[in-house]
UniProtKB/TrEMBL annotation:
InterPro entries: Inositol_monoP_metal-BS, Inositol_monophosphatase-like
Keyword Secreted: no
A matching Pfam family: Inositol_P
Name of the molecule in the record: Inositol monophosphatase family protein
């Protein structure tokens, strides 16, 4: 199992299972699980179904999911990272920008990725060393070099403890980039942010948080598409990073410089 490519059909079927559930039922209940954070009955149904499938197909691999936590005895050597509905707030409001995100992670870096956008009819996959794809078409990150031509998305604002201090950085960054970039967007789902950087629809995304279920699939897509993914200190992104910053390589200096200024 040198590159784990043989597990890609399992990852694709797992997110296809999720796709079918999400399209078949609207959320009937929305429950708060934290400060301005929520879960729907569909999130739970999807995670349970995908966990069941993965447990049957790959019982030796542990699973980390957003809603049910970590299960399995596989340890940290190889593990699935699952977000059953990334963009729950959008989904609960009937906004079609949400995704199913599944990555196979080896240690702290992804080796497989599958992302499905159930309401946009698009799916993305990647395997380490084998490129990134939308459906069967190879995708590439943008080669935008000038910040004035860049379309940049920003991750959601912080909630919970220390949110005010964290959001001061976001507001400063928004003001700085908003005066320089072509456009700034806030999409509300890290999986789509990262998939669209991989596809070249966005030139960068700056997510000043990092949860493996949100980011690990999209991180591999971006890297296999020729983009960079960094932590907030400009080091390569891993599962334990504090932030997820994906971009066209030529935009590394201006974007990381803007972030450093915002953090001062």
């Amino acid at each position: 199992m040198a590159d784990h490519l043989e597990l890609l059909p399992i990852a694709r079927e797992a997110v296809a299972t999720a796709h079918r559930i999400i399209q078949a039922r609207a959320p009937r209940s929305v429950v708060a699980k934290g400060d301005r954070d929520m879960v729907t009955d569909v999130d739970l149904a999807v995670e349970d179904a995908v966990r069941g499938f993965l447990s049957r197909e790959t019982p030796e691999i542990a699973i980390l999911g957003e809603e049910r936590g970590r299960t399995g005895s596989g340890g940290d050597a190889l593990w699935w990272a699952l977000d059953p509905v990334d963009g729950t707030a959008n989904f609960a409001r009937g906004i079609p920008l949400c995704a199913v995100s599944l990555a196979l992670v080896k240690g702290e870096n992804s080796v497989l990725a599958a992302i499905d956008l159930p309401f946009l009819g698009v799916d993305y996959t990647a395997a380490a060393g084998h490129g990134a794809y939308m459906g069967d078409a190879r995708i590439r990150a943008s080669e935008t070099r000038d910040l004035s031509e860049a379309m940049i998305s920003i991750g959601d604002f912080a909630v919970g403890p220390d949110a005010e201090a964290k959001n001061r950085v976001r507001m400063t960054l928004l003001a700085r980039l908003g005066g320089q970039a072509q456009r700034i967007r806030m999409i509300g789902t890290a999986a789509i942010d990262l998939a669209w950087v991989a596809q070249g629809k966005l030139d960068a995304t700056i997510i000043l948080a990092n949860q493996p279920w949100d980011t690990m699939a999209g991180v591999l897509l971006v890297r296999e598409a020729g983009g960079l993914v960094l932590d907030q200190d400009d080091t390569p992104h891993t599962a334990t990073s504090a932030a997820t910053i994906a971009l066209s390589p030529a935009l590394r200096t201006p974007i990381m410089t803007a972030l450093r200024h915002a953090q001062q």
